[in-house]
Each structure stands twice: as structure tokens, then as C-alpha cells.
Amino acid sequence: MIDIVFQPSEDVLDTLLAELIRDARTRGAIAISLIHLGVQGMLIQRLRAFGFLRRTEDSSLHVYVPGESELERALIEPGNWNFLNADADV
Length: 90
Prior knowledge:
By secondary structure, this protein is mainly alpha-helical.
């Protein structure tokens, strides 16, 4: 299980995905599965460009933010959230 953190750059993300795939092949993996909870952004676009296919997933995320929180707007903006399999333990 891994997590991916990247700068908002297609070149950086492409390099990370290429290395992920190369490493998986070296280790003899026959498939790579990613669960992503987030908006349809750069990560999804680049995964599709690398040949990843979308499948149905039942995972969900619920966040409670008290109305007086200074971070409320940032926390309720879906574009600020990206979760993968490795985040399932939090």
C-alpha cells in the first residue's frame, strides 16, 4: 500500500506514475489498484492517460466542520481533498 503526494505538475505526476508502474512490474505485480476519493482533477486525467480504468467503488468520506471554524471553506471544498488506499487507516 502506498500513497502519492505530488506537486501540481503533469510532469512530476507522470514521473511518479511511471516509476510506480515500473516498480510494480519489477516486483512481478499483475495489476495495480488505486482507490481515489476526490474530484475529477489532474490525478484522474493522468491515471487515464497511463491506461488505468475506472471501476465502481463503495468507499465514502464524511467530514464534520463546526460552523465557526476558520478552515470551514477550505475543508468543504471537494477540490482540496484527495484520498487513496493508503489513507484508509486514518
